[in-house]
Design goal:
The chain is of the alpha+beta class. The chain has five helices and five strands; from the N terminus they run αβααββββαα. Helix content is about 25%, strand content about 20%. The protein starts with a helix and ends in a 28-residue tail after the last helix.
């Protein structure tokens, strides 16, 4: 029994012996999980485009939120810093600085900021894109559903009136 315990202990120590010379042995098989770390204020391109010189401090706060950094030495400057660290990837760091003259926004300096869509896509990078499923049932699927569930009424989707004129869903373009 003692011989077995000693053999196992020596084998365990031997597996760790190659750590310093580039061969990791057993330790390369087991890596700890590191969580994603989000710190600071996420500022998107759309938010920064809303900022205009002459805005008041409360208006800037309404658009960007409270600044991450304010300093008594730089009372006319608000810093918005965002960092994102994910295991196996280079850390992302973005910064936007708002400069005030008194209580009025004078100018804004920032790194290249992502759009909201680009930012959300960067957070979901581990997920593999799958097939996009249709959101409407075909007439055959509706008939099959009705046959399997005879007591459930199936109503067709509403159709828009022929003379309806709706504004576009995206963008600020005028209605046609």
């Amino acid at each position: 029994m003692r011989a077995l315990v000693c053999t196992l202990a020596l084998a365990g120590l031997g597996a760790c012996s190659g750590y310093g010379d580039g061969t990791y042995g057993l330790t390369s098989l087991v890596t700890p999980y590191k969580i994603d770390i989000l710190q600071g204020n996420v500022v998107t391109r759309e938010q920064s485009q809303l900022l205009k010189p002459g805005m008041t401090r409360p208006q800037v706060r309404d658009v960007l939120g409270s600044p991450l950094l304010t300093s008594v030495f730089h009372a006319d400057r608000w810093d918005y810093v965002f960092t994102f660290k994910r295991q196996g990837q280079e850390p992302q760091r973005r910064k936007l600085t708002a400069f005030f003259k008194g209580d009025v926004l004078e100018r804004v300096e920032s790194d290249d900021l992502p759009s909201e869509t680009e930012f959300v896509a960067s957070l979901d990078s581990r997920r593999k894109p799958g097939k996009v499923l249709p959101l409407e049932a075909t007439p055959e699927q509706l008939k099959s559903f009705q046959e399997r569930n005879p007591g459930t009424p199936v109503t067709p989707p509403p159709t828009a009136p022929a003379n309806a004129n709706y504004p576009p869903l995206e963008g600020a373009g005028p209605a046609q």
